[in-house]
Amino acid sequence: MKYPNSGALWKRQKRNDKAPDMQGDILITKELIDSLPRDEDGDFRVEVSAWIRQTAKGEFLSLRVSKPWNSDAKPVKKETEDDIPDPWA
């Protein structure tokens, strides 16, 4: 991959309703992973930024990952499905 801590998502043909709309990959360097704060389970969170780009092959999302902007804060409690608000409620 050309740029560390970056990647892309490309539109893909859906074969069924459960198939993803986009697919791609991202390269995350060991240095970034080692610098991330961990929660109580040893998991970590990254910040993801995306830009819509157009090429001759079609539209895609250009991605970049980085440390969360508030990386000095205390570790964040791990989210569960119960923590996510229902947008339809």
Q: What attributes characterize this protein structure?
A:
89 residues; 7% helix; four-stranded antiparallel β-sheet; 1 helix; mainly beta; 34% strand
Oligomer: single chain
General form? extended
| CA(first)-CA(last) distance | 42 Å
What structural class do the secondary elements suggest?
A: mainly beta
Order of helices and strands: EEHEE
C-alpha Rg, in Å?
16 Å
Total domain units: 1
The portion of residues assigned to helices is under 10%
Strand order of the largest sheet: 2-1-4-3
Number of H- or I-type helical stretches: 1
Q: Can you summarize the main beta sheet?
A: 4 strands, antiparallel
Plain-language structure description:
The chain is mostly beta strands. It has one domain (6-69). 7% of the residues lie in helices and 34% in strands. It has one helix and four strands, in the order E-E-H-E-E. The chain has one helix at residues 30-35; strands at residues 6-11, 22-27, 47-55, 58-66. Strands 2-1-4-3 form a four-stranded antiparallel beta sheet, with no helix packed on it. A hairpin with a 2-residue loop joins strand 3 and strand 4. The protein starts with 5 loop residues before the first strand and ends in a 23-residue tail after the last strand. The mean pLDDT is 83.
